[in-house]
């Protein structure tokens, strides 16, 4: 048995170890180690008090089995155990045998094979900081309860100091984070994607959670757009309620006030899941409100939502810091959205509502670079409206514009939200299809062609298109090559009779005796150029030729004989 002199010597070593660091984790590890040595190899668990949830939370341990640790992870103050006595009496308590133990204490002793158990309060400035639980193989250690209580007092002081230091460090870090965020937002004020990235990165730091989302109100003011998120399970996003009328975010934006779901009585609803599929138990929603220009009135831009899989995950200080973040983000988002609106107006074609050629020239290299970075495939469709020149000549320029608008509407209706449709030229529309395998491209193009062909454009009649299909990286190795090969494919489609889709072919896909892709592309280009020159010099009879064109099989228009 350890003598009193030996205990005193070890106590001095403990004191030195506890006060050599202000980091809570290091203090707790030192305390567990020293308690285990002082008690001759007892199993030790140190808990800290969670007064808000009225429970002890296990912070550090030594010697317990994984099964027991699951039981001890969080113990309510009111649960039947030695720790309940510590809460009520604020002094050491013990069971000298398993027969004396009740509730959780009995379960732990039975599971660990303990001969006795002792619990010590950790008290600092008359506040219960936590408790130490000791499962003993030698019941005689209990006779030194007063000594161990003194050791617990020293440990309490070291833990209290480290908690205060941790809080001050936390506050300093959070204030520093907010300052750096403000500087970053100022430098990125015109770039909405950068603002959203900064907002989400800062939110997970301030909220001490890996999960958050930034929702922006759409133009209809009936639903939100998921503008940025972190830590959400992709397959669960369709469960995310983004309506303004019924969602938590909608209520927050309408009230202009923070809403916090975080206890078992008031559970969040309409939420996605965390990465891995866990449900969120705490959701903090903060409105993003920008100045409207009218005194005392704010415009709702969106909502920041921060998530946790734990109950009561966010405290008052975190909520206040996240509110400060939203105030900073609101100002930057307001400027960025205004800039984006102006830039978007300059990026759209007025007649079709599609992006214009300048936008396409800017975005295609970026999409190719992104596909290369993520090792995805990228498709390109070049859509040429058949006989648009004849529509203009026979029905007028206005009907020609209506035919283009009709095709554009079909394109927008048929494709996905992530696809990018642009007005490429007078009679051409180009579509970028991110993350689309080559084997699916022709099917998409055919579906689009048939959709355009099978309906009638009001005031125009049947409209057909020729579609050139290319793919990165299998059929083209760069943005420019994507354009070149799709132009070759659309020329071949027109050369072979129009109203069809043509996929770029590689040399190894050619059959013996087939004309090479390069030669076929040259012939098609010459034929298309010749046809255009013929059109310039032709004087067509409006009624007869236009009517026959509608019903005749597609073919190249030949020069009218005089």
Straight-line N-to-C gap: 124 Å
The radius of gyration over CA amounts to: 36 Å
Number of helices: 16
* CATH overall fold name of the largest domain: Alpha-Beta Plaits
Number of strands: 18
Q: Estimate the mean pLDDT confidence.
A: 83
Which blocks of ≥5 consecutive residues have pLDDT under 50? 539-551
CATH domain class of the largest domain: Alpha Beta
Structural class: alpha+beta
CATH superfamily of the largest domain: Reverse transcriptase/Diguanylate cyclase domain
- % residues in beta strands: 15-25%
Q: How can the largest sheet be summarized?
A: 6 strands, antiparallel
What is the strand arrangement across the widest sheet?
A: 3-2-1-6-5-4
**What is the architecture of the largest domain at the second tier of CATH?**
2-Layer Sandwich
In total, the number of domains comes to 3
What form results from the Cα inertia axes? elongated
The amount of helix comes to 40-55%
Features:
562 residues; elongated; Beta-Lactamase; alpha+beta; five-stranded antiparallel β-sheet; Alpha-Beta Plaits
Please provide a written account of the structure:
The chain has 562 residues and is of the alpha+beta class. The protein has three domains: 4-166, GAF domain (Beta-Lactamase); 188-347, Beta-Lactamase; 357-551, Alpha-Beta Plaits (2-Layer Sandwich), CATH 3.30.70.270. It contains 16 helices and 18 strands. Helix 2 packs antiparallel against helix 6 (145-187) and helix 6 (145-187) packs parallel to helix 9 (316-347). The longest helix is centred in the first third of the chain and has 43 residues, at 145-187. The chain is elongated and about 110 Å long.
């Amino acid at each position: 048995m350890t003598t009193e002199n030996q205990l005193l010597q070890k106590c001095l070593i403990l004191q030195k170890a506890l006060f050599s660091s202000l980091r809570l984790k290091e203090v707790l590890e030192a305390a567990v180690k020293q308690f285990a040595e002082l008690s001759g190899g007892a199993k030790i668990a140190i808990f800290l008090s969670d007064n808000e949830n009225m429970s002890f939370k296990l912070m550090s341990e030594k010697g317990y089995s994984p099964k027991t640790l699951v039981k001890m992870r969080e113990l309510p103050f009111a649960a039947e155990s030695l720790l309940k006595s510590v809460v009520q009496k604020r002094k050491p308590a013990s069971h000298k045998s398993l027969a004396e133990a009740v509730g959780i204490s009995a379960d732990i002793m039975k599971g660990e094979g303990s001969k006795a158990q002792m619990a010590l309060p950790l008290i600092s400035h008359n506040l219960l900081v936590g408790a130490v639980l000791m499962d003993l193989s030698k019941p005689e250690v209990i006779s030194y309860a007063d000594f161990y209580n003194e050791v617990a007092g020293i440990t309490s002081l070291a833990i209290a100091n480290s908690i205060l230091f941790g809080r001050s460090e936390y506050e300093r870090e959070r204030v520093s984070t907010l300052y750096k965020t403000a500087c970053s937002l100022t430098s990125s004020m015109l770039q909405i994607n950068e603002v959203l990235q900064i907002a989400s990165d800062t939110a997970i730091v301030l909220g001490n959670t890996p999960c958050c989302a930034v929702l922006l109100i759409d133009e209809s003011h009936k639903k939100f757009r998921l503008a940025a998120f972190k830590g959400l399970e992709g397959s669960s996003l369709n469960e995310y309620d983004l309506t303004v009328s019924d969602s938590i975010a909608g209520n927050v934006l309408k009230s202009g006030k923070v809403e916090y779901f975080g206890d078992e009585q008031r559970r969040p609803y309409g939420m996605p899941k965390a990465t891995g599929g866990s449900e969120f138990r705490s959701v903090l929603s903060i409105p993003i409100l920008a100045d409207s220009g009218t005194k005392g009135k704010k415009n709702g831009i969106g909502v920041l939502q921060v998530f946790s899989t734990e109950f009561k995950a966010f405290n008052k200080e975190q909520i206040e810091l996240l509110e400060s973040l939203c105030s900073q983000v609101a100002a930057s988002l307001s400027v960025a959205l205004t800039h984006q609106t102006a830039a978007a107006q300059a990026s759209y074609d007025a007649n079709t509502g599609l992006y214009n050629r300048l936008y396409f020239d800017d975005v295609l290299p970026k999409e190719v670079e992104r596909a290369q970075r993520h090792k995805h495939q990228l498709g390109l469709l070049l859509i040429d409206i058949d006989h648009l020149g004849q529509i203009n000549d026979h029905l007028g320029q206005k009907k020609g514009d209506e035919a283009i608008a009709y095709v554009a509407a079909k394109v927008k209706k048929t494709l996905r939200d992530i696809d990018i449709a642009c007005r490429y030229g007078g009679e051409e529309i180009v579509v970028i299809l991110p993350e689309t395998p080559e084997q699916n491209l022709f099917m998409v193009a055919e579906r689009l062609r048939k959709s355009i062909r099978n309906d009638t454009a009001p005031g125009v009649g049947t409209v057909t298109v020729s579609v050139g299909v290319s793919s990165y990286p299998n059929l083209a190795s760069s943005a420019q090559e994507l354009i070149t090969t799709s132009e070759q494919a659309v020329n071949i489609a027109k050369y072979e009779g129009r109203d069809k889709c043509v996929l770029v072919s590689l040399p190894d896909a050619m059959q013996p005796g087939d004309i090479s892709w390069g030669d076929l592309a040259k012939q098609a280009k010459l034929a298309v150029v010749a046809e255009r020159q013929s059109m310039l010099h032709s004087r067509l009879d409006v009624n007869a030729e236009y009517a026959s064109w509608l019903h005749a099989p597609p073919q190249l228009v030949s020069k009218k004989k005089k």
